[in-house]
Structures are given as structure tokens and as C-alpha cells.
């Protein structure tokens, strides 16, 4: 089935001890695209992905990978699917590069092992046994093993967890290259910047169900503009919200070329502002953000004697979207 999507999941249910940890999950991952599965700890991401990998048998629902059943047709799928597990899943007694050559030899048309090793910086620990590798080194080796057979679909479970920034960028470059070659990539991650950067489509999972999904750009575009500032903690956020509402109502600002007054052309009353201190000293202003809002915010901070150390104005990040959807309480 050359035209079937990389992965199709319909109404997937997986129970442990009678408890549904995946509870009617639907997902489609296209070829030539990165699909990110996001969700809090214990949301059911790994279990869902393991059902797609044929490592777990669903209790209900349907899973198709390249149009095939990953459990019943596991043998046909094996050479076409690359899997990078969260714990690496590698044999521990062999040397790193030796292991990769061994995996490559199992495929009809593997990638060039030396080139892949260079791409992912494996040479520096090529002769080290897997058990002695650091967490990040093991992750890089696991990724190499997942892609060396030129798979059509790749499952990456938290691929850059524990990696240093250089390795992370090498991984991201490789993922982009695979996507460009038409590979369908399913990625679970807790790194929202990773998902925002890489993913074409995002599924947010909580309590075993998809609570939001869509093209990453659309999810982000749906958010309003916010002003984020860093300064000293403990400021009166309600007072700032009142000041901003007043400034917006007056619709006044002062330009560098002299006093200039603008007023809202439509005469409508401005939307109220919500100001939150998200973590000590990090504030977000949400509402009908305009140049007046930014100017009034910085002026108010100056009046408080609070030194502004960072100011950004922009749309919500994927992290904002994620926290709005799943809440701030720990799981
Ligand atoms: N083999 C198992 N037996 C019993 N419960 C399990 C088993 N595997 C997972 N669970 C439970 O299923 C739930 C979902 O786990 P899963 O690993 O799929 O979550 P996750 O979204 O990948 O979480 P994380 O972000 O922490 O990796 C958790 O409550 C977990 O404890």
C-alpha cells in the first residue's frame, strides 16, 4: 500500500490491570512529516507508540503502520520501520560501532555506517562498550541504529533527552533530512522547543486521549499575542493589569518624535488584561496587546524601581499552549 499514511491509529485502547491508560486514541502521521506526540508524564504516549511498534497488543481499536498491522504483520514491517526506545534497548556487552555495523548488516540497503557515525559524533566512543556509554551517547547510538536501515517510518521516543546542545542539533538535522526524504517520523518529547522546531503536526495527549491536535503553525497562530517580562519577583500583578487597562482606554502613547496621541478608531472599550507571575520574576501580560501596552508596562516597572532584564512580545509558544491544555499541576 504505497499511499497509506505512515501511521493510522483509530480508537486505540490499552488497559493495565483493568485501567485504560490509552482510552480511545486517534492519530494519523503522514509520510514526509514529523508528528509530535506531547503529554504530561503518564499520559499514555509511550504505551500508544509501543502499540504502533508492535511491542504491545491493543485491547481495542486499530493500528496500521504503512497500512499493515504491527503485531500480525510484524515480520513484513520490521525492515521498513525504525524504532528508538526511551531506554535505548541496546545490547550492553558490545562495542558501540561494532553494534551499529551488526545492525546495518541486517538490512538489504543500509546507510553508510561511517557517514552516520560521523553525523552523530559516534567516533569518539566507537570502541566503548554500550554499558559504559553516557546517557546522551547511548541515545545517539540508539538513533543511529533506528535509522541505519533506511526505514520508511521512524518512532523516536524522547530522542534528545539527556543530550548536550550539539548532539541535539545533530539529531534535529538528521530528523529534518529524513523528513525531506519522505520518511514519516513520530516523535514523543517533553521539550516544547524541540516539538515547535521540528513537528509539522502535534497531538497533545492526556489521560490516554487526544485533547488537542493540528498543524503546529495553526496551534500557535490560534494564540493571542503576549508580553513577557523578567524583573524582580513579587510585583503587584493586579495593579499592573489596572494600569494597562487605563492606558489602553486612553489610547495614548508618546513617540520619540514628540507627543502623539492615538485613539481606537472603532471606539470600542479595550479588552481587559490578565497579568500573571508564572515563576518568580517572570510575568506574562495577555490581552489586547498594542504598542501602548508595551510602553505602559515598561513605564510601570520603572515606577516600581524594578529593573527589566528581559522583554519579549510575541505569540504563545507551544509550551504556553501545552500548559493551557494540560494545566500546571504536577503529574
Ligand atoms: N507494563 C505496565 N504495567 C502497568 N502499568 C503500566 C505499564 N506500562 C505503563 N503503565 C502505566 O500506564 C500509564 C501510561 O504510561 P506511559 O509510559 O504510556 O506514559 P507516557 O505518556 O509515555 O509518560 P512519560 O512522559 O512519563 O514517559 C502510566 O500510569 C504507567 O504507570
From TrEMBL:
UniProt entry keywords in alphabetical sequence: Antibiotic resistance, ATP-binding, Cell membrane, Membrane, Nucleotide-binding, Translocase, Transport
InterPro entries tied to this protein: AAA+_ATPase, ABC_transporter-like_ATP-bd, ABC_transporter-like_CS, ABC_transporter_ATP-binding, P-loop_NTPase
Gene3D superfamilies in the record: P-loop containing nucleotide triphosphate hydrolases (3.40.50.300)
Single Gene Ontology MF annotation: ATP binding
Domain ABC transporter: 7-232
Places the protein is found: Cell membrane
Spans annotated as Disordered: 251-272
Membrane topology: Peripheral membrane protein
Keyword ATP-binding applies: yes
Biased composition (Low complexity): 251-268
GO biological process: response to antibiotic
GO cellular component: plasma membrane
KW 4Fe-4S (keyword) present: no
Protein origin, superkingdom: Bacteria
Protein name per its UniProtKB record: ABC-2 type transport system ATP-binding protein
Organism of origin: Sediminihabitans luteus
